[in-house]
C-alpha cells in the first residue's frame, strides 16, 4: 500500500507532497536553493505563481521579466510510503513529463526522458522499498536543451526565435504569432504507482466499423504484458493451459471472450451488434455512443481493465481528381459533409490547467456558433480525452495534426525514435473516438519546403518528409487503418502539385491578411480552405484585466507585448482604413477592430459557402486563445466571445442567404489561381441560397433595392426550391442590381426569416447617418432584456455586454436594422446590475458610431 494518494484498481496517484526548486541557470537570489510547494499535475510557472514568487505571466510585460524560468533547471521531489501488497509487479507511470527529465527513485536513476507527448512506464520492483520512498524528477532547461539539440542534429529552418523543432515539446510553448513565450517544465499529466499481478492490458485498440445493413463490429486488438516477462522467460514458450489469461470484451451488453496462452503478447476479440445506431456529425443526425469494457484475468479474477466509448460510422476523404482539379471532401456514412470548421490551439499556455469543464465550455461555444469540425493544429498537442469525449458527444468532427509545425525536422535518431513512440501512444489513445475523422502529418511544412527558401539552407539534410509520407502512414496502417490521413496541411493530393494550389485539395489563405484586403477572398475559388483569418483584440474586460497601461492606446507598451504578429498593428490598420476611418479614441478603436475582424471573416466564410459543392469546407483560424492577446481568435484568452463568434454563428448557419459579386477579380498569392466567376453566367450580383439542412428549402425569395431611408426602388419575387444539402445560385435581376446612388442604396434579399445584405459602398464612403437608436432595458427571469429600435438605417448593431460585467453574455450581435425595425437582445448576467448600463454608448454599438 501507499500513502500518497487514492488507490484505484491498484493504481495510486502520487500527486501529494511535491516541492520544486531551481538547481541551475539564472535563478534570482531570493529563490536560490529554496523549495516551493508544487502541484502535480502542474508546471513550474504556476507553482511559482501560487507561491507568490512571480507575478502573473499573462499580465503586462511580465512575459519578458519571467523569461529566466525557461532557462533554468528545476527539480521536483516528493516522498511516499509503501508496504508490500502481494502484487507481482510495480510500475511508476508518468502520463506526461515536460520535457527533458531524469527520474530517480531512492537515488536510483529510472529513466531519462525527452518527449512531452509520451507516456512513460518505469518498473520499480528492484528499487521500491518498504517505508518511505523518495521520488525525484529533475528537469533540464527546455530552452538550453533545444539550443544544444539544434547543433547536435544540425540546423533546420523554423519560424519564431527558438529551435522548437529540435525537441519533442509543444512548439507554441516557445512563443508564436499569437502565443506567449513561456517555456515550461513540470509533471503536466498524472503520475501513478501501478501495482499488478499476472497480466495487464498494455494497449487496447477498439476499431468500430459498420456495414451497409447497420451491423456494427468492434474489433479489439490488445497488447498484453505478463508479470513474469521481466524474469526473462521466453514469451513464446507458454506455460500450459492453467496459466492462460482470458480477455473479455463487452460492447453494450454483448460479450466476447478469448483465451490467451501464457506469455502471448497479443490477442484480438470481435463483438458484433446488429442494428446499431450510427454516429453523425452535428446537423446530420444523432451521436449515439456505445460503452466498451475490456478486461483481462484468469477467468475468476480480473487483473486489469479498460473502459471507453465508440461510435459506429464510416469516414473517408474523397480526393478523387475531377475535371476541376482535386476535391477535398469529408464523407461520413457515405454522405458528403460540408465542413464548417475552426482551428484549435491549446486553450491555456499552461496546458495542465485546462479542465474537462473548460474543454466543454469552449467546445460548447463552437457548437453554438454552428461549427461542425475542429482542427487540432500541429504546433500544439495531441489533445486530451476530455476534449475528444466532448466532441464525440456534440457531434463536432475533429482533425488531429501530428505535432509538427512551420519547421523542418530531423529524421535521424534520437528524434525519429521519439516520433514513433509518441505516435504509437497517441494513435492508440485517440482511435476509439468517432469524432476523429482525419489525421494530418504536419502544419505547413511541405508548403514551407516549397515556398519558404528552406532547400538551400538545409544543404541536403532531412526535413521531415519521411515522417509524413512513410513513417506516420505506416503506423496508421498498423494501428488505425479505418481513418483517413493526409501528409500535411495545406495538401494538394500529391507531391507533384504545389501544396497550396486552390484547384487541388486543402489550402491556407494568408495573403489576404498579410498583404491584401478581405474583399479579395472572393478572388479565390478553392476546393477547401484549412486556414484563413483576421485579427482582432480580445474583449474589453479581458484587455483591461491583462493590461494596466495608463493611458491605454493601440501602441502602449502592454498592447505591444500582447500583439505577437509581425507588424500586427500595421496590418490591423491597413485592413481597416479601406472600410472605416481609423479612430483616435481607444474605445472606438477597440470596437472598430473587433467589428472589422467579424466582417472580414464573415465575408470569407459566406463566399466559400456560396461556392459549394466545388468548395467543400472552410476552417477558420482560430477558435480560441491560450492567453489574453490580440489575435485571430473568436473566443479570447479568458473565454469570452468576441464579435467574430457571432459572425461565425450567422455565416455557419444551416441555412444561409448571401449576396455575392460575380465580376472578375484580380487573383494573386501562392500556387495556381482562377478567375473569380463561379459560372453564374453574368457579372453583377448573385444570390447564393445555401441549404445545409436535412429538408428542402422552399419559398419566395424577395429581392429589393432600397435607399438608406427604407424607400423601395425596385423589387422582384422569385420562387425557389433548394434541395437538402445543396447550394443554388440566383442571378439578381438588373433593375435590382443596377444602382443609381452607390453611396445611398442597398440590396436586401429575404427568404422566410433569413436575410442577406449587399451595400454598394464601403462604410466610410456611404451615407450612413449618425446612430439614431431608441433603447431600453429591463430585468427579466435569468438576465436582462434590451430592446433596440432604429430610427435610421443602422449597420452591425452589437451589445458589448462584458463592459457592464465581465460575466455578462449576449445572445446575438452584428444585427443590421432598417429604419423603424426593432431587435431584442437577451443578456445573461449576475443580478444587481443597473439595466440601463446595457444601453450606454460604449456598450450598445454599431458601425454607424464609427462614422461620426
From TrEMBL:
Keyword Transmembrane helix among UniProt keywords: no
SUPFAM superfamilies in the cross-refs: (Trans)glycosidases, beta-Galactosidase/glucuronidase domain, Galactose-binding domain-like
GO BP field: carbohydrate metabolic process; glycoprotein catabolic process
Glycoside hydrolase family 2 immunoglobulin-like beta-sandwich domain span: 202-313
UniProt KW Hydrolase keyword: yes
Coiled coil: none
Reaction equations catalysed: Hydrolysis of terminal, non-reducing beta-D-mannose residues in beta-D-mannosides
Enzyme Commission identifier(s): 3.2.1.25
The protein's name in its UniProt record: beta-mannosidase
Family: Belongs to the glycosyl hydrolase 2 family.
Top-level division of the source organism's lineage: Bacteria
GO MF annotations in UniProt: beta-mannosidase activity
Keywords for the protein's UniProt record, in alphabetical order: Glycosidase, Hydrolase
Residue ranges of every copy of the Beta-mannosidase-like galactose-binding domain listed in the record: 35-189
Broad enzyme group: hydrolase
